[in-house]
Amino acid sequence: MSTNIKSIIFLFDQSFGMLRFSEKSEVVGVDFLPGIITLMESLQSFNVEMFLFLPEVSESVENLKNYFPQFNRIVIYQNTSVLQQELNPYLVRANSTILVSSDRVLRSSAAELGFISTPHPQVALNILNNKISEMVLIFGSKEQCRSISDGLPYFYYKIEDNRWCMLSVMVEENFSELQKNGVIVEKLSIDLSTEDPIFVEIEEWNKETEEILKKHKVLSIEGRKIIVALGPAELNESLHVHGPNGHAHPQLLLPSPEMLYPVNDFRNDNKVVNNTDFSELNMEKITASTPESFEAIVKRYSGKLDIDHDGPIKSRHVLHPDNVRVINALQQDLSELGLCPTVHRFNFNGISLNNVIADLPGIVPSSFELNVKEKLRELFQQYPNPMPIENWLPSVKNIVGNEWFTSKITNDANPIALRRSIEDSVGLSPWYPWWLQSCTLPDSEAKLIIVGCHLDSTAANDSIYHPDSDPAPGADDDASGIAAVLSIAKCLLEYKEQLTHTVRFCFFNAEESGLVGSKVYASMLKATGAPVKAAICIDMIGFNSDQNHLFEIHAGHIDADIRNASLPIAQTIANHVVGVPSLSPPQIYQGTSTDTNPDRTLFDGAIGRSDHASFHQQGYPAVVVSEDFFINFPSEPVDDPNPNYHHASDLFIDASYGSSITNVLANAVLELARK
């Protein structure tokens, strides 16, 4: 047992939990991810001091202590640039202090000061137990990889038929047991205190790819699948491959223990009737967008029109100051529509970023259960602080009745655990912002329909590009997606209180940096048990240079089970193209291989390359919709990819084309939300 470690500093981030914020940006609660409280209790058993550092919080420390009684001290820092200053008082014992953060930039800064930096509390516990954490690749069948209970999983992927690979962090004593079960364990040479693993799948080996990889620390190569270690000074985008002979999009890999949790199977919910005549579907047609309205939104979010009182933006890149203006503009637009926008915070690259989220809740006729839930919600909004317990517990018993309370709740729990137990029992789940008074409570049976896009942009394909200052308008990539999601949100508001399922409009940040925003968001949904029925991501639907008007729907995935669950969503969308003269029938990709090949029944080049991949990783049904980007059969019209992709010249769109796709998607989402 270790006796050297005296204290642990936790930099609160997405691997730890989520803060609840009120409309006034006040902290009104915290939701720890599953397993974190148990890990903290294990760490406390070593009699170490535990300090919590919270970013950008305006609350008093005294108030925050009620939500974090496990910690000896709470420190608030307003931005990462002053974090080192806040760490200075702890430098005298840095070599006996563990610092936990999922952000490699912050971990590296702490390591330079002498702290023992780790990416997750589980690694900290290994240190206290005098066990060395190793990042490993575990090779075996799909079932073998997914059944591994030891370790801290990051990612799993298919090498070839029935040969899969799990990337995980574990201690060496577990290796022999795994090997007895017939799997192969391979250590990777990565410094967990300063580096993150990045997954890249290239389309083909060429000189450009080789030159890019020479600049980085390559950990593993399995065919076209590569894992690279990046340090704090390296941008994830440095692993983008743009070229005439191939493309590769990096994925940032983070600790994801929830990845192996079971997921509800909504395949039957998404079942469709294959139909060639739209009129036989017996559904109304709705119009969410016109070419004029679509183009106006694209111009606002790509810098051709003013986005706020300060004028037009220059870029939406995460390192550019205009990224914050885009976040604010999206919240303003959603509020003006009458929705209840929230932000989902996460740390990345030494900065605090936000996804923007807004819900159109699924509502059914009032029931006794919903009435009880609403009364408890009002009570907990009145008393967000679980202490003192006398303020709210008697009222809870009056609302639910003593018989229900004694049958469902353990009364000897501490106030925080008791409050959480009651919330869970009545369905006040952390994946829905029920603590906000302005957000209508959905029915307990309502599932989630995700309609998403990414809000950031890049011009990384330019020969010289400085992301913190240079233009990256991203009109097609992905202001066209922003326009589609905002248009669908406005249209579906006409069906408020008429939908069975909640439609959640999501604008993900840092997609161009490795799908970061959607990854941490999908992880949160999975960890908190969110009932995701379908995820539809919209990425580049604005470029069209010919009269064919083809577009793509990607449902493919390396895991055939996930592909099969996603395919009905694609078919639902395709059904709504019937009778739309301005569009050709969509190309549905349903392959389980990423090879570049026009046979869409076998291959899908978009696997792992857009935000839908983050939902696939968690086992959710998902698709991404895009323009005619990938290679077609010789008998088909030639593919029509945007030549301005990831260039500062991404300034123009075909508004009629993008608007037509948006209207198809609006009808499909309405159908899914009514089922």
TrEMBL record:
Tell me one Pfam family matched here.
Answer: Peptidase_M28
Q: Name one GO molecular function term.
A: metalloexopeptidase activity
Domain Peptidase M28: start-end pairs: 443-656
The processes (GO biological process) annotated in the record are: proteolysis
Query: Which branch of life, at top level?
Result: Bacteria
Listed PANTHER family: METALLOPEPTIDASE M28 FAMILY MEMBER, PEPTIDASE M28 DOMAIN-CONTAINING PROTEIN
Q: What is this protein called?
A: Peptidase M28 domain-containing protein
| Species per Swiss-Prot/TrEMBL record | Paenibacillus etheri
